[in-house]
Amino acid sequence: MVTLNVNGKQLQADVDADTPILWALRDTLGMTGTKFGCGMALCGACTVHLDGAPIRSCMTPVSAAEGRKITTIESMSASRVGKAVQAAWVKHDVPQCGYCQSGQIMSAAALLASNAKPTDRDIDAAMSGNVCRCGTYNQIRAAIKDAAATLSA
Amino acid sequence: MRTAFKPSRRNFLKTSGLVIGFALPGAQRLAEAATPAEFKPNAYLRVGADDRVTVVVGLSEMGQGVHTAIPQLVAEELDADWTRVRVEQAPVDEAYKNPIFGIQATGGSTSVNGNWGPMRKAGAAAREMLVAAAAQTWKVDASECRTEKGAVVHKSGKKLSYGKLVAAASKQPVPKEPKLKDASEFKIIGQNLRRLDTPQKVNGSGKYGLDVRLPGMLTAVLAQPPVPGGKAVSVDDSKAKQVKGVRQVIQIPQGVAVLADGYWQAKKGRDALQIQWDKGANAGLSSEGVTKMLTEATQQEGKVARNEGSVGSASGAKTLEAVYEAPYLAHACMEPMNATAWVKKDGIEIWAGTQSQGPNQGILSHVGSVDPKQVKVNTMLLGGGFGRRFAPDFTIAATVLSKMAGKPVKLVYSREDDMRAYFYRPASVTRFAAGLDESGKPVSFTARVASPSIMEASGFMKLPPDGVDSFAVEGVKDVPYDIPNLRVEYSRQEPGVQVWFWRSVGHSQNIFFSESFIDELANAAGKDPFEFRRSLLGKQPRYKGVLELAAERAGWGKPLPQGVHRGIAVAQSFGSYVAEVAEVSVDKDGRPKVHRVVAAVDCGEVVNPEIVKRQCESAIVFGLTAALYGRITFKDGQVEQGNFDTYPMLRMSEMPKVEVYIVKSKEHATGMGEPGLPALAPAVTAAIYKATGKRIRKLPINPEALKA
Q: Rounded to an integer, what distance in angstroms lies between the CA atom of residue B109 and that of residue B89?
């Protein structure tokens, strides 16, 4: 049994310490917004925030999260940055199949939380760990810039 | 794995531009289930007393925007208030069969093409019934009434919203041939309306197959044979069963499944299995062997796919020959294959992101020995499809496991399982020969295609009597250029690997082959590749139209920055025409960088221009990923790729600028899920030729061969 702080709530999960955060969230806690893509931190679909920093939850065991704060897509609308990013995603109609977009949004929100005015190069660096098989990269870039503009307004 | 996949119709994928009548069987029966608070004239829409319009779509949403485009067709003729339109995924039912396939399924860029007429009629019929209801209520003639934004309006100015007419409209007869609007009256078709599926995809609430959770459900992970066609001869599951949370180990034809409380436990259990495999006939399979087999086959005469004039008697002043090759490819959908099945006493229920509800209903009824009507298919959002989710391997395996376990079972492929499940775009080799006359005009063109047969692999089609697999030759067979002597042959070769439909199917490699060879001919003739094509497309106005528009918008012939070069290619697939110009540079290590792609599209009448553009861009990324990196290879029978480290995807930092321009057209609407893909690779490699003088004849592009 481990105790996880997810989106501000203390939750008990009956999982082994080596269980990746991803599967504790999805299978044990029933929070399916965070997606499984590769299991090897190669695609970014499983991105969540651990104490505000983006991590790949498919490779990070729950033991690494004890006493720390996990933030997932389900609570993005609760933060100013997350809300702006989601609004920009809607405005630009970014998703196609949508499966990677939770991870994309988590990476983008982490970028904007630490860098209010990212350059194209900053966006490349922050987002190149997130694969989109539908090829929505140009719309993601536009949405990030739009969210940055909203946040600095 | 070969599957018994037998839908009712043999002509399943014949895209003959067939448009069926409005009265799809079952439409009326589903309509009768309406509650009194709703007006439900047919299976495709409901109007609520609250003015809410629900469009029920039988097609799968896999990113292509069909859950927005189909509602636009219905809403246009209904004169609905778009802000009150929502979309609902249909169950599996005859009413929702794909008009082109004759069975409920999504693929082949058929959705808008096939539903352009039927879904507009569904909306128009409802509109006429609402008008009749209002006229009756007001005791006026229906001809004095019009409709706008979800309301009927009388010439006197009286107005009733559709929601107020629900009861009265339900009593009206359903018109058999409702009047459709003229395109000049369109207010919703042709508009860049926002996608109806976006909100759930940005807040994590959208439910994909992998997100299904049922009470008492077990999660299964499968140990698949390491070689296609291999079989487990002995299984030691003692260590697997010691893993906490593992409940059962079950052997099925597709491999050995470990069932556990969740994915992580099931995967740990699967990895702890000790299995001895009989690798079977494919133990020695190698990619070198596949290349040799296909290449040698092109040295022999094949089955004739097209024959015009006499290539034998036409000898040009200059002759060219070239051999092109493309590898096996995996689809690599972001959501790995998965399905949840529950075999109950009274039938089977399945939850899956599937492109083939109709075929699945038939197949699973055999698996579970029940009537097809007892198979309920719940279509979830698809985390990518690209043809892969047309296959029933994961739904069959989940159903077998649920039946054997006596519980609901969610079968999940790991990324590696997904990539090694042997549903690949076929490897293919094509040998070309051509002759040019003294003026540089091509006088003869021969192509010999050697590849496995998707038709035979599909389980629901057979090679036709002429022995030509239409998927294997599409894109080479229909080379559009004005060449008097032309011959295309096909040789079926089966190295032993299951092949499958992959975004744009045969066009995905064949347009690379044929358009690259045309580029070679242009070069040999000393002509500009755009002008060369243009001069040979006099009888092909739609090809020519997109070619000219792409060249114009790309600034063909105008100067580019130092080191950047252009290539051009054009293709028709699934009835849509696309030309693309790529701007590419190659660095000293031979790595190509695509800076910009300009595409011109003619897909007939357009439902949602922005979705058309996004689909074209999406297909460009898919094609570029394949051209740069895509390759499934075999060594000692085993697939050498497993995850995104060995099967790389295009990333944000590599993304070119993309511009898509649409030709204004009154032709019948055709699909855009796939047609943006084929022209990309030959446009890029033509630009690489300009940059380096080196001709790429084998994909993926090998930077070693391009080093300065």
A: 19
Radius of gyration in angstroms for the set of CA atoms belonging to chain A, rounded to a whole number: 15
For residue B622, list chain A residues with Cβ-Cβ distance below 8 A.
133, 135
**What letters, b where the CB count within 10 A reaches 16 and e where it falls short, cover B149-184?**
ebbbbbeeeeebbbbbbbebbbebebbeebeebeee
Q: How far is B150 from chain A (nearest CA, A)?
A: 25
Q: What is the DSSP letter of A76?
A: G
Among the listed residues B398, B393, B408, the one whose alpha carbon sits nearest the alpha carbon of residue B359: B393
Q: Which of residues 202-221 of B touch A (CB under 8 A)?
A: 202-208, 210-211, 213, 219
| Nearest-5° Cα angle at B386, B380 to B390 | 60
Tell me the pLDDT tens digit for each residue of B466-484. Answer: 999 999 999 999 999 999 9
Question: What count of Cα atoms within 13 Å lies in the side-chain half-sphere of residue B376?
Answer: 8
Averaged confidence pLDDT in chain B = 94
Say if CB B219 and CB A38 are below 8 A apart.
no
Using a CB-CB distance cutoff of 8 angstroms, which residues of chain A are in contact with residue B66? none
Optimal mutation site among A28, A83, A93, interface B, most CBs of chain B within 10 A: A93
- Residue range(s) of every CATH 3.30.365.10 domain in chain B: 2-203, 209-280+337-412, 287-328+424-706
In angstroms, the separation between the Cα of residue A114 and the nearest Cα of chain B is: 19
The total of other beta-carbon atoms located within 10 Å of residue B673's CB is 30
* CB contact (8 A) between residue B620 and residue A43: no
ipTM here: 0.98
C-alpha closest to that of B490 among B503, B505, B476, B507: B476
Topology of domain B2-203, CATH: Aldehyde Oxidoreductase; domain 4 (3.30.365)
B273-296 residue pLDDT tens: 999 999 999 999 999 999 999 999
Can you tell me the distance from the alpha carbon of B397 to that of B409, in angstroms, rounded to the nearest whole number?
10
Which residue from B426, B501, B494, B415 is spatially nearest to B461, judged by alpha carbons? B501
Which domains does chain A possess? 2-72 (3.10.20.30), 75-152 (1.10.150.120)
From residue B146, give the alpha-carbon distance in Å to each of A53, B40, B125, B157.
57, 20, 14, 10
Contact between chains at B383 and A99 (C-beta distance less than 8 A): yes
**Token pair recorded at residue B207:** 């439910």
Between CA A14 and CA A23, with CA A20 as vertex, the angle to 5 degrees is 65
Half-sphere exposure (CA, 13 Å, Cβ side) for B369?
2
The amino acid sitting at B414 is S
For B384, the closest chain A residue by CA position comes to A97
Residues A31-84: tens digit of each pLDDT: 999 999 999 999 999 999 999 999 999 999 999 999 999 999 999 999 999 999
| Alpha-carbon distances of B269 from A1, B8, B247, B256, B277, rounded to whole Å | 20, 40, 10, 11, 18
Residue B2's pLDDT band, with cuts at 50, 70 and 90, is very low
Do the chains contact at A136 and B618, CB–CB below 8 Å? yes
Of the candidates A71, A131, A146, A56, the one whose C-alpha atom is nearest the C-alpha of residue A101 is A131
> CB-CB: which of B205, B262, B643 is closest to A23?
B262
Backbone angles phi, psi at B334, to 5 degrees: -60, -35
Nearest chain A CA: its distance from B306 CA (Å) = 35
CATH code for residues B209-280+337-412: 3.30.365.10
φ, ψ of residue A96 in degrees (nearest 5): -110, -95
Are A131 and B649 a contacting pair at CB < 8 A? yes
What CATH fold (topology level) applies to the domain B287-328+424-706?
Aldehyde Oxidoreductase; domain 4 (3.30.365)
Using a CB-CB distance cutoff of 8 angstroms, which residues of chain A are in contact with residue B195? 93, 95
B425 touching chain A per CB within 8 A: no
